[in-house]
Amino acid sequence: MDDGPCNLPFHVSVSSGTPIYRQIVEQVQALVAGGQLAPGDMLPSVRQVAQALQVNPMTVSKAYSWLENEGLLERVRGRGMRVACGESSVIDRQAMLRPLLMQAVVHARQLGLTDVQITSQLQRILKEKHT
User: What's the rounded Cα separation, in Å, for the pair 18 and 39?
Assistant: First the structure.
């Protein structure tokens, strides 16, 4: 995304099957978990995100409200939303990764791949992304 206070790289896919608000929620969670967003960091406004992603502002507002209800974001009067300070802003990165890996393993097994083949593919991908 461009011109946001944090220059967040939000990307959505209308064909993914996952609601757009949920994609935004998951991306904010990942950015916080990965340390790219720290407690106190301001998020781009609803309007900025909606314009950049070409989505309805209510979609972005729904995502931000959900994150606020979960305690990950807090509203700053007159300024927008920021990453909350405190325990609620701590996200278990490994817990976030587990469902994605589980889905990949299930799919790989449906393809008839062995554990060795699955592990080999993962190691190959890790090496490709490390360089």
Answer: 27
13-38: pLDDT as tens digits: 988 889 999 999 999 998 998 888 99
Coil, strand or helix at 10: coil
82 contacts 42 by C-beta, under 8 angstroms: yes
pLDDT averaged over the chain? 86
**C-alpha separations of 48 from 5, 54, 58, 89, 95 in Å:** 10, 10, 12, 23, 30
- How many CA atoms lie less than 13 Å away from 73 in the CB half-sphere? 27
Tokens 């097994």 locate to 109
Catalogue all structural domains in the chain, each as residue range(s) with its CATH number.
20-89 (1.10.10.10), 93-130 (no CATH)
Q: Name the pTM for this structure.
A: 0.68
The Cα–Cα gap between 111 and 54 comes to 36
Alpha-carbon distance of 46 to 81, in angstroms, equals 9
